[in-house]
Amino acid sequence: MWWKDLRATLSQRINVEGIGLSASVIVKDHHLILPHVLVPDIRYIDWGELQRRGFKGVVFDKDNTITVPYSLTLWGPLVASIEKCKSVFGNDIAVFSNSAGLFEYDHDGSKAMALEEAVGIKVIRHRVKKPAGTAEEIEKHFGCKSSQLVMVGDRPFTDIVYGNQNGFLTVLTEPLSLAEEPFIVRQVSRLLSETLNLILWHP
After folding, report:
1. Helix or strand (DSSP H, E) at 39
2. Phi, psi (deg, nearest 5) at residue 101
């Protein structure tokens, strides 16, 4: 069991599949990393306007989007925005993460349950890491097409690529903190961020 936990933790911290797909996206499909909306963090999102435009629900990434990495509690300054989102969309919000709720990392669902209890948001269980996979679990949870949902995350090569491939409105936030990330993850994140900036300014 300890080896399964260690392997899962390392896999969650370093998304090898995501890094490999990133290279392919940069070469062939760089439009997939471009978000529809770019904000510093979720406090800058107008939830009411999204609802008025016909969107029926919101899907959040977890780490560095609504929590600091590997935490199971909301980052304090975001609490009011999350409550506003709940007041607009009711129960039609969820977390879809490569940590809590991902079977490979959270095989007994304990992290998902702890996060649900702490933040009051449903965590969708799934088996395939973003950016791979379809929107099947999410559409089943919300009872609508992905084109009627908003995907919010901090990583262009996972959250945004996944969202764009599956037809969501995508919102990219800046990472809340890189301090807890391993050195290699910080370096890869910096490289991918620089690549995104080049694509944004030199399409």
Report:
1. strand 37-39
2. 95, -15
The token pair at 13 is: 């911290």
Residues 192, 160, 91, 135, CA torsion sign: negative
Contacts of 130 (CB under 8 A, 6+ apart): 18, 61, 96, 98, 158, 159, 161, 162
**Residues 162, 144: contact at Cβ < 8 Å?**
no
Q: Considering only CA atoms, give the Rg of the chain.
A: 16
Could you tell me if residue 109 is left (phi over 0), alpha (psi between -120 and 50 degrees) or otherwise beta?
left
The answer to pTM > 0.90 is: no
What are 46-103's pLDDT values in tens digits? 999 999 999 999 999 999 999 998 899 999 999 999 999 999 999 999 999 999 999 9
